Amino acid sequence: MSSDDDVRDAGPGAGEGAGRGEGQAEGAGAGVDAGQADQGAVDEAVDGALGEAVGEAAGESGGTGEVWDVVVVGAGPAGSSAAHAAATAGRRVLLLEKAELPRYKTCGGGIIGPSRDALPPGFVLPLKDRIHAVTFSMDGKLTRTRRSKQMLFGLVNRPEFDAGLVAAAEKAGATVRTGTAVSRVEQHGTAVPDRRTVAVVLADGETVLARAVVGADGSASRIGAHVGVEMDQVDLGLEAEIPVPETVAEDWKGRVLIDWGPLPGSYGWVFPKGDTLTVGVISAKGEGAATKRYLDDFIARLGLAGFEPAVSSGHLTRCRKPDSPLSRGRVLVAGDAAGLLEPWTREGISFALRSGRLAGEWAVKISEAQDAVDARRQALNYAFAVKAGLGVEMGVGKRMLTVFEARPRMLHAAITGFRPAWRAFARITRGSTTLADLVRTYPLARKALQMLDARQAAAAVAAAGNGGRGPDKG
User: Fold this and answer.
1) For residue range 96-117, what is the model confidence (pLDDT) as tens digits?
2) Whole-angstrom Cα distance, residue 118 to residue 103?
3) 286: left (phi over 0), alpha (psi -120 to 50) or beta
4) Tens digits of residue pLDDT in 142-182
5) Fewest CB within 10 angstroms: 28, 109, 411, 422, which?
6) How many C-beta atoms surround the C-beta of residue 298 within 10 A?
7) R_g of the chain, CA atoms, integer Å
8) N- to C-terminal Cα separation, the chain
């Protein structure tokens, strides 16, 4: 879990459908009529002449004489993956990051199978621990530990992990600028020499020009606002990095704790990282005080209240609406900026890495597009690719969150006492399957979700027939 709108030293008042692949996208592009294509050619000719005039008057790239193929905003996992993909394709790539690296990120730092599979070739994970066991509890009760002979997932510190991804992008050929905040992007106006170009306006007033832009600047994304991303689910996560003595650290080595919390949809975690335990909780936004109480009680229950946290922080995770846009013109969004994360666990690293790589690949194609029609076709291809993979996983995750909110005890009993459920959990974390694949291949899981869908539909009908007041209990 991660986000760019981190809130440090969070206290009691802490802030609170799938497409069908490239063929369908090509079909969408082919549906543009000849008149539109002709108009695109006319626009391109006019824009070319205008670009020459602007270039003569003020320099074609805001005075630098430089137009990048791809500019990526944000150097988290999504942005670094996008920059790496575009640079590997031989394009001139600029990666902009507002902070100086390395920088702290509020995040559990769990690297599951899909994350490992999406890393750049040859990338060496800076693992702090390898997890083979999970202890589950229900608000501190009904505790049970399940173990696996194979590693379930690894744990990293985000400053090291993110810095390694940036280094990989640089090695692939990307240029990196840190301490560089972006104010906005413009696709029309005096700062834009032609319709093949996007202007990235920095906070200090400098303008950087690009043929394509990838916004990966976190869940409070300025690029996401430009694209028009809308969020469907917002959650508050609170976390503490707690240094512990060697004797305590040894007790946690190779094992994590997941505690299903007292608030609907909430849970807590303990992730060991050498001499530090990452302890956190998450629940729906709007329950800030109750979420803080949960964290305090959780830490006290674990016997960790006597240790001073090195860092206390908070962040909001945001999950996109299914029909929310992923592009606008020559601008794409990925990772948290696009609201891409798993709604139930709020796991975001794998979604960031995978969507970032896709965004980088399609940004290359957009940078080569000679007109708005072709650029739009490639942007649709990107959207379909995201929705066909990550979008399906998010849809199943949303349904799982609904089950968890309504029946947390049932889910806990299944995962701790029903061997196939534990095996499914292990396979998901190792990356040998996904939630979506699980529903497709396990009849019992599919039937359970179908029953849930039927109950929700019946409840909606009952509520509508009762004037929207919910089921009649009289």
Assistant:
1) 999 999 988 889 999 999 999 9
2) 22
3) left
4) 999 999 999 999 999 999 999 999 999 999 999 999 999 99
5) 28
6) 26
7) 24
8) 43
